[in-house]
Amino acid sequence: MLVWLVSSALAGEPEEGFYAGSYGRIDTSTDLEGGGGDAVKVATWGPRLELDPYMELDLGWVQRAQDGARFKVLITPALSGDLFHYDGQWSEALAVRNLFAEASEFTEGAPLSAWAGSRMVRGDDVYLLDFWPLDELNLVGGGVVARPGRSEVSVSVGANRLTGSTWQYQEVVVQEPGSVDGQTVVALDRQRALGTLRLGVEIPAGDVTIRPRLYGEVHALPRGERIEVDPFTEPERVPMASDGGVLVGGQLSAWGWAPSSFVHVWARYASGLAHYGELTIPVDGLDREYRARDAWSFLAATAGNHETKSFSLAWGAYLYYKVDADGVVVDFDDRWEWVEVVRPQLFATDHLAVGLEVSHQHVRPNGLNPQTGAADEPDVVKISLLPAIQIERGAYARPRLHAVYTVSVLDAAARGFWSPSDTRLHGGAQQYVGIGAEWWLDSTRPLTPDAAPL
Q1: CB neighbour list of residue 243: distance below 8 Å, 6 or more residues apart
Q2: pLDDT at 123 over 70
Q3: Which end of the chain has less neighbouring CB within 10 Å, N or C?
Q4: E-assigned strands of 65-111?
Q5: Which stretches does DSSP call E strand in 327-420?
C-alpha cells in the first residue's frame, strides 16, 4: 500500500528487528437445507459476511544503517479456499501477496521512501462490501513516495503478463528435426505496463482531519500475434492490436471527531484495460480486434463509521455503471448497479457485542436476461444478526469470534439470475447460519484512517 511508504513505522513494526502480523477470516456455515451456506449476490460487490476463508501472514525485517537509514523487507504469503479439515484435500490455494524491500530516511532532510518488488498497492476500502473503489493494484515493479509535511506524492510503475489464455502469452509446439514430440516455443509475449500517481494532503480543522486525494492509473499493452490451431486447417496467425486504458478519480475523507470514526467518498472513471482491472483477462466483451479500449465504467462510493463507547454505526454504498467493448448497445453485460449496507452494533460489555446488518442490491442490465428472456431488474435484501465476542469495544476491534444468521430475500428477477438447475436456490428466501472469526494482528493494513501514521 503506497500509503504506508512513509518514514514513520507502522503499528506492529519495530524500529529494528523481526516482526510478524496477520489478517485472516474463517467460518463454517449451513443453508438449513442440508447444504453449506452460499453467498447470495447479483451485483459485482456484495456484503462480506459470506466470504470464503482467507489468511495473510506478514513476515517483516527492519534494519537501520549507522546514519539512520531504514530498510524493510516484507513477505506476505496468503491462503484461500476450502480448508483441509473441510474438504479433505491437501490443496489450499497459496499466493504471495507481498514480496518487496523498502527504503526510507536515506536522504537527510528529504521525506522520501522507495520500494521495489511485488506488493499490494491499495488505499482505503469499503469494508462492509470488501472492495477498494479507487486505488487497488497488485503490482510487480517499484515506487517512490514524497511526504513533505502533511502532503503526499506517490508514483509507482510495474508490469504483468497474465497466463491462462492466449491474450497476453501463448506457447505452441512446433516440429523439430530429429524429435517426435516437437519443441515448445513462445508464440505470443505481451507484457502489460502499469503506472500510478496519487496526490493527497491532510488538512487539520480543529479535531477533524480532512484529506482530499487525486489518483490515476495508466495501462498499456503492445500489439502481438497469436496462433489459432485448428485440427482441420493450417495454423492461422491472428493479429492482436495494441491496447490500453486509464483510470482517474478522487477521494474525500474526514476523521477525528470520535475514535475509529471516519467517512470516505469516492468517484472514479475507468476505460479500457483499467476498467477490467490488472489481473483480469477480458475474454468477453472485446471489439473485433480483441481490444478492450472502448469499455468504460463510472463508480461512486461511500463508506464510514461512527462510534461511541456503547454503539457504532458503519455503512457502505456504491453506484456503478459499466459498458464492455463489444459495441452492442442492448447488452445484458452492460448495467447499472446500486448496493447499500448499514451495520449498527451495540457493545454490551468490553468483549460482548451484537450487530444487525441490513443490505440491498439492485441491478438494471441494458439487455434481456438470456435465461428468462425478460428485462429483469433483480433486487436482493439481506438481514443479518451478528452476536460477537471481541478483544475490545469497537466496530473494527479484532480478533473477533462471531455467529451470523442471514436471511436473503430474492424477488423473481433475482431468482432468474440463478440457473434453473442450480440446487442451491431454495425459493425467494435463502438462509445462512454460520460461526467464524476474523483478526488483524499487527497487520500492514489500516483499520481506520486515524490508525495510520501521519
Answers
A1: 220, 221, 272, 273, 291, 292, 293
A2: yes
A3: C
A4: 70-80, 93-104
A5: 335-347, 352-365, 379-390, 400-410
CB 46 within 8 A of CB 363: no
Among candidate residues 419, 347, 332, the one with its CA nearest the CA of residue 377: 332
Band (6; pLDDT cuts 50, 70, 90): very low
Compute the average pLDDT of residues 151-178: 89
How far apart are the C-alpha atoms of 247 and 157, rounded to whole Å?
14
Sequence-distant (≥ 6) Cβ neighbours of residue 185 within 8 angstroms: 171, 172, 173, 174
Q: Which of 246, 228, 250, 224 is nearest to 237 (CA)?
A: 228
Among the listed residues 97, 20, 23, the one whose alpha carbon sits nearest the alpha carbon of residue 54: 23
How far, in whole angstroms, is CA 266 from its chain's centroid? 15
Provide the 10 A C-beta neighbour count for residue 152.
21
Residue ranges of E strands in 280-323: 296-307, 311-323
Annotated domain spans of the chain: 2-451
CB atoms near residue 52 (< 10 Å): 13
**Residue 232 Cα distances to 120, 165, 172, 235, angstroms:** 45, 22, 17, 9
Stated pTM of the model:
0.91
Between CA 338 and CA 406 the distance in angstroms is 20
Q: Name the DSSP letter for residue 449.
A: G
- Name the grid cell of 404: 451470523
User: What share of residues in the chain are helix, strand, coil (percent, to 5)?
Assistant: 5, 55, 40
What average pLDDT does the segment 156-171 reach?
91
343 burial class (0-12, 13-18, 19+ CB within 10 angstroms)?
buried
For residue 230, the one-letter residue type is D
Is 2.40.170.10 the CATH classification of the domain at 2-451? yes
